[in-house]
Amino acid sequence: MAAEDRVVVVDAEGQVMGRLASKVAKMLLEGYSVHVVNAPGALISGARRSVIEEWKRFLEVGSIVNPEHGPYHHRRPDTILKDVIRGMLPRQKPRGREALRRLRVYNDYPEELKGVQAMRFEEAEPRRPRLYYITLGELARELGWR
């Protein structure tokens, strides 16, 4: 397959973040170059208040010695989603590092991808009513993203 045939655009709008991330990670490991668009529209399952409180507790975790040593807490939807996908890749191995280099995540639909049809995963569709989910954009705004 040619390199341009292995480029896939995935629409995250209205898809459950964890299931979407596992599908994208699998495609990256298979050698595809994946562009994820509309990251703020991805859904996180759970009660709104508990999800926000859990992420805010995570923001308090830091290095005792020097905060520059991490961990680094992202607040933008595209970087949060990229971090979730990164966690599903074996990045200590060469194939995992290569796979992460082929990943691009965007908050909206970039101009260069306007003509490309975005795919959606049926397995990542929400199974419960919208009330049981919070969007990644809402979470990011609660964490300080403008």
Can you give a write-up of this model?
The protein is of the alpha/beta class and 146 residues long. The chain is 35% helix and 13% strand. The chain contains five helices and five strands. The protein has a three-stranded parallel sheet. Strands 3-5 form a two-stranded antiparallel ribbon. It is globular, with a radius of gyration of 16 Å. The mean pLDDT is 94.
Please name the defining characteristics of this protein:
146 residues, alpha/beta, three-stranded parallel beta sheet, two-stranded antiparallel sheet, 5 helices, 5 strands, globular
Structure described in brief:
This protein has helices at 17-29, 48-59, 77-86, 94-101, 136-143, and strands at 7-11, 33-37, 43-45, 103-105, 133-135. It has 146 residues and is α/β, with parallel strands linked by helices.
Structural class, from secondary structure content? alpha/beta
Radius of gyration: 16 Å
Question: What spatial order of strands do you see in the largest sheet?
Answer: 1-2-4
Number of helices: 5
Overall strand count: 5
Span of the ends, CA to CA: 41 Å
Question: Which oligomerization state do the chains in this entry correspond to?
Answer: single chain
Question: Low-confidence spans: pLDDT under 50, at least 5 residues?
Answer: none
Largest sheet: 3 strands, parallel
Task: Classify the beta-strand content into a percent band.
Answer: 5-15%
Relative helix content: 25-40%
Global mean pLDDT: 94
**Based on CA inertia axes, which overall geometry fits?**
globular
Topology order in helix (H) and strand (E) letters: EHEEHHHEEH
